[in-house]
Design brief:
InterPro entries: YcjX-like. This is YcjX family protein. This protein has 466 residues and is an alpha/beta fold. It has 2 domains: 268 residues, 3-Layer(aba) Sandwich (Rossmann fold), CATH 3.40.50; 122 residues, no CATH class. The strands form 2 sheets. It has a 7-stranded mixed β-sheet, sandwiched between helices. α10 packs antiparallel against α11, α11 crosses α13 and α11 packs across α14. 40% of the residues are buried.
């Protein structure tokens, strides 16, 4: 009760402060593995500080943004997003991709903006704070655990694991642990380690449904009982002191001690949200990978509909995120003539996920972006035909290479229908993906790193508040 009262008082205080003093926009940035969260934040901040490439941000186009600068973040207990180190990585003479998100971090960017309207000519610039909160997307997927029992979660995980070669060793270990009435801690740890090894392999293979998320990013809780469990085949009337009951107890402890505090302390304070999605890698992975992505997007949308979730209703205190952007990253891996098709696929996935999640309450949008453009476009002759390609420096060898990833369909149903039916392969096409290294940059004064539609993304997320 005391925590609830404290959060209400803080919310009222933030509202009053934003109305009469300096408004604060809390922007959450998340996404699944390799979706480019760190690069997105680094490029966004760099381009808001040097805005020559932000022509689609209306406040910049109107000349109302006077300046932007970094300030100490308001939360002293959260690590600072290491902007300077990440910017140095992508702007070095031999640039490289910065390290990925490992935990929650935060950065405050303050913008001085001239107001509009009748009083705009009489008052000076107003300071608006943009607090960017970076957190792993795997943690967001843990929301679905709050509404699941251990038996339901185990059943769902094992059903999907049976379809994957990466799970072979873990499934054998889970089957051997079936019905165990006596056990010791090394038994529980060995089973949990086998499950974690499967999760690592599944993530490397491009699978999106990775829960519990903290198993891959344990932080200071590594080795604790709350992070030492695994799914087991459902047992009716399991012994009270058996292994199945102990796994169930630890699963519930994970929800209470790990998942709920994250949503209470971080997620409940977010105003705007961007979810980064590596849709191209999912398409390259085949129909089942696209279906996993669709289910993951539905689970993520569940985080933004607290009305139907009694746990979130109490944790979020009735607050809703106002805007959510689902952004397909790595648009620079496609020629611009295919960007519209990638956006249409994202919109179809979002619409499908929204219907499945019975979602309502926030404004949503889908977009194709590249926070840092790593390629250039060119047209090459191949077998007597002109082919639109992108050229860049390969991450594996450092050599220049041209890529034609395949032609995305105009109708997204040609991808979504095989995905729903869990087809093994695409019937009429193959899609390729290359990993490109960042290109060396030669920035002019006032220019941020080159991008694709980062300014449009910023306009959707924060433009109305500027």
């Amino acid at each position: 009760m005391a925590e609830g009262v404290t959060r209400r008082v803080e919310a009222v205080g933030d509202s009053i402060s934003g109305t009469f003093f300096e408004p604060v926009i809390r922007l959450g940035v998340t996404g699944l593995a390799r979706s480019g969260k760190t690069v997105f934040i680094t490029s966004l901040v760099a381009n808001l500080m040097d805005r020559a490439r932000m022509t689609q941000l209306v406040a910049q186009a109107d000349g109302r943004i006077v300046t932007a600068y970094l300030q100490p973040q308001p939360d002293d207990t959260i690590p600072r997003f290491d902007y300077e180190t990440h910017l140095a990585a992508i702007t070095a003479a031999e640039p490289f991709w910065p390290e990925s998100t490992r935990t929650v971090s935060e950065l405050r960017l303050s913008l001085k903006v001239r107001p509009t309207g009748l009083l705009g000519g009489f008052s000076g610039p107003r300071t608006i704070h943009l607090d960017i909160v970076d957190y792993p997307g795997e943690w967001l997927l843990d929301l679905g655990l709050l509404e699941k029992s251990y038996a339901k979660w185990s059943r769902d995980v094992l059903d999907w694991a049976e379809k994957r070669d990466e799970a072979r060793d873990f499934l054998a270990a889970a089957d051997a642990a079936r019905g165990r009435e006596t056990w010791e801690e090394p038994d529980a740890r060995a089973l949990s380690d086998a499950y974690k090894a499967y999760l690592v392999a599944a993530r490397e293979a491009g699978h999106a449904d990775i829960t519990p998320g903290r198993f891959l990013l344990p932080g200071e809780m590594e080795g604790s009982p709350a992070l030492t469990f695994a799914p087991l085949p459902v047992e009716e009337n399991a012994p009270r002191k058996g292994l199945w009951r102990e796994m169930e107890r630890r699963f519930e402890a994970y929800k209470d001690r790990v998942v709920k505090p994250f949503f209470r302390d971080h997620f409940s304070r977010i105003d705007r949200q961007v979810v980064l999605v590596d849709a191209l890698s999912a398409i390259h992975g085949g129909p089942q990978a696209v279906e996993e992505l669709r289910r993951a997007m539905a689970d993520i949308l569940g985080a933004f509909r607290p009305g139907r979730n009694r746990f979130l209703t109490s944790l979020l205190m009735g607050k809703r995120v106002e805007k959510i952007l689902f952004a397909a990253t790595k648009a620079d891996h496609l020629h611009h003539t295919q960007h519209g098709r990638l956006t249409a696929i994202m919109e179809a996935l979002l619409r499908d996920a929204s219907d499945r999640a019975a979602f309502a309450g926030a404004e949503t949008a889908a977009m194709s972006i590249a926070a840092l453009r790593a390629t250039v476009e060119e047209t090459v002759s191949h077998n007597g035909a002109e082919v639109d390609c992108v050229r860049g420096r390969l991450l594996s060898t450092g050599r220049q290479a041209a890529l034609y990833p395949g032609e995305l369909p105009e109708d997204p149903k040609r991808l979504l229908n095989p995905a729903r039916s869990l087809a093994e392969h695409w019937l009429d096409a193959d899609y390729n993906v290359m990993a490109f290294a960042p290109a060396p940059l030669r920035l002019k004064p006032g220019e941020g790193p080159p991008h694709i539609r980062l300014d449009r993304a910023a306009q959707f997320l924060i433009g109305d508040r500027l």
